[in-house]
TrEMBL record:
Name the UniProt record assigns to this protein: Ribonuclease R
Domain (RNB): residue spans on this chain: 197-518
Residues passing through the membrane, by range: none
Pfam families in the record: OB_RNR_2nd, RNB
InterPro entries membership: NA-bd_OB-fold, RNase_II/R, RNase_II/R_CS, RNR_OB2, RNR_Ribonuclease
Record's GO cellular component terms: cytosol
GO aspect biological process, one term: mRNA catabolic process
This protein's UniProt keywords: Exonuclease, Hydrolase, Nuclease
GO molecular function: exonuclease activity; RNA binding; RNA nuclease activity
Length: 615
């Protein structure tokens, strides 16, 4: 009621209910509301707003216009929490920027918050805000609790931060993904399609995945005589019917979560690991692109798309296929030799396609840190880089994704990546010059980035400069409109090849089968784009806490780091505990990417802040 009342006051809507008029009397008495020209107005000394708490800041969201939002300090919350309707008093600020301090919670939503105990007080886990309350005296330092945000009574005792088992719970709770731990839906999945599917079971398809993979989305086969590439994708849309309970839950999740300890799949294991997984030697429904390759123009001459049944003759690991490409066949069966005989020439073809693609697109040196845990604690880190086998699979999937996007109507589901703004590219040029690599703005963004990468090659700083280029990019997302993919250099691009783990691909399969676009396609695109980013943040939150836990048990240990943020004095470890971020307590303006030895001084597992000193 109060929120609507103050909206009416600020928009001069005088249609007040009797209940609202009674409330106005109270606010008039305290001179929070005043009368001006027979209209009720909010006293300019005050602000009524909704609290929105972010990672590093608090915003008082104006009830009418976001242009009137105010940032405040955490210390000025005065017991208010996320979503509360509050009364704030404006504070004089000689620097002219509006400042305010919350003086009263007008309408507090009953909710719960995750806190931990430090120095006999509650601190919120997410923002590290101190909450003074006598209830905190009941608990031990390091206890992690869910409490009522008004009464501060205990709802759940999660455990103590000394126990690494609670790290997963914390990350899932903070990002509202705990429901993924609930029992999977009971579903019946049978291959009982009455339609005639194209039978490709005799073709020796194979899958190439990480060693630990359980969900095999895609399989490939290459007819080297006819130069026809088959890309078979798990036919998830056959089993997940639009609008079903299973579909609604998959939409809510939008993507699988890959933690170092486990996979929290978008679909139940009966589908993700069984009926939809293109397992070795098992008949599976698939959605297949049959692409006739033009080897002279590095393009697809003709692409056919159809529902089929295949049998993956062999599941390979990336490592095994890397050895095959390098000429180390190891021991092999007759079947494996038959597959290698088409994979090797296919790799040579995809190499040429890749080279041609990179005339417009970009080749960034990316690597992924795979954290290996034992009993919840960091044991080792495996740095995974893009190898020949990765690139072989990637080029095949890119071709299928491009062809899928071409078959969509003007309104569909596209993976878009917009060109970075001039300001970001200008800053990139400045940053690269500061590193001592002499570069200049070129005629357009593409030429500028290509120019920078060429210069970087001879500077021995290619990997670091690639990091800067990636930071200058806009974020890829899903859209109902085709705006192209700048990073890949494609005028049209969609995600088609991973429907087991991405809801976007499942939607695309349905569109291609029915030739109809969902009425709420814009809402779908926005939801899955936001969820994709949220899941990334969740995984980073978990991994950073794992790093902090390692650092807490290695105080005074020396590590090698390089500076990655000169303003916040942050560095990242590049050897041994690769990817661990630290704050340098005695930073003295060393250049970006400067390498140095540091000693770990402290580590807070809750806030994930690791402090190191330069030796």
């Amino acid at each position: 009621m109060l929120k609507e009342l103050f909206k009416k006051i600020q928009t001069n809507n005088n249609n007040y209910t009797n209940e609202e008029l009674e409330a106005i009397k109270i606010f008039l008495k305290d001179e929070i509301i005043i009368i001006n020209n027979n209209n009720y107005e909010l006293n300019s000394k005050y602000k009524v707003a909704t609290v929105k708490i972010g990672k590093n800041l608090v915003i008082l969201e104006d009830l009418v216009s976001e242009l009137k939002n105010i940032k405040i300090e955490f210390d000025d919350l005065n017991g208010a929490y996320n979503g509360d309707l509050v009364l704030a008093k404006r504070v004089f600020n000689p620097r002219s920027k509006t400042k305010a301090k919350i003086i009263k919670v007008l309408d507090g939503k009953k909710a719960e918050i995750l806190v931990y105990i430090k120095d006999k007080a509650f601190f919120t886990v997410k923002e590290n805000i101190k909450i003074e309350n006598k209830n905190a005296l009941k608990y031990e330092d390091g206890d992690v609790l869910i409490i009522d945000n008004k009464s501060f009574e205990l709802i759940k005792n999660v455990g103590n931060i000394k126990d690494s088992k609670i790290d997963e719970f914390i990350s899932l709770y903070l990002y509202e993904e705990l429901y993924r731990l609930e029992k999977h839906l009971d579903i019946v999945a049978n291959m009982d399609d009455t339609k005639q599917r194209v039978d490709l079971r005799e073709l020796p398809f194979c899958t190439i995945d990480p060693n630990s993979a359980k969900d095999h989305d895609d399989a490939i086969y290459f007819d080297k005589k006819e130069n026809i590439l088959y890309v078979a994708i798990a036919d998830v849309s056959y089993f997940v019917k639009e609008g079903s309970e299973l579909d609604l839950l998959a939409f809510k999740k939008s993507t699988s979560i890959y933690l170092p300890t486990k996979v929290l799949p978008m679909l139940p294991p009966i589908l993700s690991e069984e009926m939809c997984s293109l397992k070795e030697g098992v008949d599976r429904y698939s959605y297949v692109f049959k692409m006739h390759l033009d080897l002279e123009n590095f393009s697809v001459k003709k692409a056919e798309l159809f529902e089929a049944i295949i049998n993956s003759h062999k599941n390979f690991s990336y490592g095994r296929i890397d050895r095959v490409i390098d000429g180390h066949l190891d021991q092999y069966s007759k079947l494996e030799k038959e597959i290698f005989d088409y994979l090797i020439p296919l790799y040579e073809i995809t190499k040429k396609f890749r080279k041609n693609r990179l005339i417009k697109g970009y080749d960034f040196r990316t690597s992924e840190n795979r954290l290996k845990l034992k009993n919840g604690k960091l044991e080792s880190i495996e740095v995974e880089t893009s190898t020949a086998s990765h690139q072989l699979v990637e080029e095949c999937m890119l071709l299928a994704n491009i062809e899928a996007s071409k078959k969509v109507n003007k309104v569909g589901i596209y993976r878009i990546h917009e060109e970075p703004p001039f300001k970001a590219i200008s800053k990139l040029v400045d940053d690269v010059n500061i590193l001592g690599v002499n570069v200049k703005l070129q005629s357009d963004v593409h030429d500028t980035i290509t120019h920078i990468q060429e210069k970087a090659k001879i500077s021995m700083m290619g990997a670091e400069i690639d990091e800067l280029i990636i930071q200058a990019q806009t974020q890829a997302k899903y859209s109902s409109k085709n705006l192209g993919h700048f990073g890949l250099g494609f005028s049209s691009y969609s995600h088609f090849t991973s429907p087991i783990r991405r809801y976007s691909d499942l939607v695309l399969h349905r569109i291609l089968k029915t030739k109809q676009t969902p009425n709420n396609i814009d809402d779908i695109c926005e939801h899955i784009s936001l969820n994709e980013r949220k899941v990334d943040q969740l995984v980073w939150d978990f991994e950073d806490r794992v790093y902090a836990r390692w650092a807490a048990s290695h105080i005074e240990e020396e590590i090698k780091v390089k500076v990655v943020d000169t303003q916040k004095a942050k560095a990242v470890c590049y050897e041994k505990i690769v990817g661990m971020k630290v704050v340098l307590e005695n930073y003295k303006g060393q250049k970006l990417f400067s390498k140095m030895r540091v000693k770990i001084k402290s580590a807070d597992i809750i806030t994930k802040v690791i402090v190191a000193t330069i030796i």
